[in-house]
Amino acid sequence: MYQLRTVADFDSAHFLSGYQGKCANIHGHRWHVEVEIQAEHLESEGQMRGMLVDFGDLKRDLKALADELDHTLIYESGTLRAKTVEALLEEGFRLTEVTFRPTAENFSKYFFDKMSKLGYPVSSATVYETPNNCAVYRENK
Ligand SMILES: Nc1nc2c(c(=O)[nH]1)N=C([C@H](O)[C@H](O)COP(=O)(O)OP(=O)(O)OP(=O)(O)O)CN2
């Protein structure tokens, strides 16, 4: 089995609605994402000979997903009042609304699903919220 890994980082703010503790407040992280893909066989011809996929494509696509979140305030749907969202947008702040609580666990599945949808044979996605703590999402295929 061959396995490739690429990484991307993004800086963004979030908060955990309903959390008892400091993470209920808006705070920032440098999120670090690692995505692994795997396959039994390599390409046998042409430009891609001897490769699982081109690292250039893999890193570009993960970076594009990370860039969508970069320097935004990520919030879960329904956890900010409409007038708060409106006021922040009027101030020119970039917001990202997600349908899930923005935890490391949920973001690991987010990146797993997004990269899978792009056609990559993803085996795991790992999201570090802090240098010491990460969540990993994988599926048994
Ligand atoms: N299982 C999870 N637990 C927590 C998550 C999470 O996504 N999954 N997230 C948080 C908070 O967002 C928080 O920012 C991270 O908490 P913490 O480890 O306390 O991070 P700090 O960098 O603030 O740690 P210090 O040691 O206090 O500097 C909480 N839990």
TrEMBL record:
Cofactor(s) for this UniProt protein: Zn(2+)
Signal peptide span: none
InterPro entries: 6-PTP_synth/QueD, 6-PTP_synth/QueD_sf
Pathway the protein contributes to: Purine metabolism; 7-cyano-7-deazaguanine biosynthesis
Cofactor annotation remark: Binds 1 zinc ion per subunit.
Classification via Gene3D superfamilies: 6-pyruvoyl tetrahydropterin synthase/QueD
EC code: 4.-.-.-
Cited SUPFAM superfamilies: Tetrahydrobiopterin biosynthesis enzymes-like
Keyword match DNA repair: no
Name this protein carries in UniProt: 6-carboxy-5,6,7,8-tetrahydropterin synthase
Source species of the chain: Brotaphodocola catenula
Gene coding for it: queD
